[in-house]
Design brief:
Layout lengths: L16 H8 L16 H19 L9 E6 L4 E6 L10 E5 L10 H14 L2 E5 L11 H16 L5 E6 L1 H15 L7 E5 L11 H4 L12 H8 L22 E5 L6 H14 L4 E5 L7 H4 L25 E3 L31 E3 L4
Parallel strand pairs: 3-4, 3-5, 5-6, 6-7, 7-8
Antiparallel strand pairs: 1-2, 2-4, 9-10
């Protein structure tokens, strides 16, 4: 145990003016409060309503400045939003599959739509966002099931090399779990994955959960209750619950975004290392300024009409890739002429490993 004396942490002058402004605002997330007891369903629903209401008040109605189209589809268990920015070309078939964050309990409904608007506006490409069901009524595996159902629908309309999956925080967790689940069920995998300060280890063993508590301007305190109500009776080390502990071989090329004040910094560093060592996956960790990755999503002045907003990596010191690497055809791809269904957490064949990757013409 290490005891640190109380001290003041100044806003660093080494970062951009935008990052300094965000840090100077102090806490951007909902006011800290204790989580309800795990069996207090009414208490959790009240917590969700309060926290989501705070965020909605802070960010406002982002549909007002959005000039593209929003299509709401009913995919059975939950809604799906399909957004097409005004400047999206008709011949551009790329789709960003966006999974919203919110500690597995927040960010649904209208906030899911607001998150999708932000992503579509920044990226300038078609965006799918699934409003997956969440605890307390729908713990694991229901949220992952909903994400998989939406991904399967997307595969009916797009080739896998035209799809990039991404998510922030809990959405990053679900993005990682979705790739593992899709692989294990014999589905073709997306061209790449974007993790924005993802949560990959629900045991909470990462050091930054403690060292950055109080520095992170969105997260605060222990997230163990949210992790517990999401996981339910399932093992926290289950790869579909904590992707860090999964068999990552064959994982698509990935980008991980985090910051030095991010409570999820350890999760992202460890996931990056696991992808490089256990999966031989082309990946990079983009170190944002000390602002946490999630704070850009909460920033009330983050614009929604430009791909060069404060929330895009190019504005925060992390270069956007000129191209994303497309893995070779996997044996589950309909165009490869074969399909096998492995046991959970296994790898189907060595052909799933990247070999002589081609460049995908996708600039996100």
């Amino acid at each position: 145990m290490v005891h640190l004396p109380e001290r003041e942490i100044p806003v660093p002058t080494s970062v951009s003016p935008e990052a300094q402004a965000a840090l100077s605002m102090g806490r951007l997330g909902p006011p800290p409060r204790e989580y309800p007891a795990l069996d207090d369903v009414a208490g959790w629903k009240a917590y969700v309503a309060e926290a989501d209401g705070f965020v909605h008040t802070m960010i406002g109605d982002r549909t007002a400045g959005y000039t593209g189209t929003i299509e709401e589809r009913d995919i059975g268990p939950c809604p799906l939003y399909v957004l097409t920015p005004e400047d999206a070309r008709d011949d551009d078939r790329r789709v960003y599959f966006d999974i919203h964050g919110g500690a597995w309990v927040l960010g649904g409904g209208e906030l899911c739509k607001m998150t999708a608007i932000r992503s579509a506006s920044q990226l300038g490409t078609r965006t799918w966002s699934v409003d997956y069901r969440m605890p307390p009524d729908h713990p694991f595996p229901t949220p992952l099931d909903d994400c998989l159902a939406a991904y399967q629908l997307l595969l009916e309309e797009r080739r896998p090399e035209e799809i990039i999956v991404g998510g922030a925080s809990a959405g990053g967790n679900l993005a990682g779990a979705l790739v593992l689940r899709a692989r294990d069920e014999g589905l073709p995998l997306p061209a790449a994955v974007v993790f924005n300060t993802g949560a990959f280890d629900l045991t909470g063993s990462g050091d930054s959960w403690q060292t950055n508590d109080g520095l992170d301007n969105v997260l605060a305190g222990s997230a163990s209750p949210a992790m517990a109500i999401y996981a339910g009776d399932h093992d926290l080390r289950d790869p579909y619950v904590s992707p860090l502990f999964g068999d990552l071989r064959g994982f698509p090329p990935s980008i991980l975004l985090t910051g030095t004040r991010d409570m999820l910094l350890s999760d992202n560093v460890r996931m990056h290392r696991a992808l490089r060592q256990r999966a031989s996956t082309p990946s990079c960790t983009c170190g944002r300024p000390p602002v946490t990755g999630a704070s850009w999503a909460w920033h009330p002045r983050t614009p929604t009409g430009s791909a060069k907003s404060a929330a895009s990596p190019s504005a925060t010191g992390a270069p956007l890739p000129s191209g994303l690497i497309r893995p070779p055809l996997r044996d589950s791809d309909p165009r490869s002429g074969a399909k096998t269904t492995p046991s959970r957490g296994s790898v189907r064949s060595a052909s799933a490993r990247p070999s002589q990757p081609q460049l995908m013409n996708a600039r996100l």
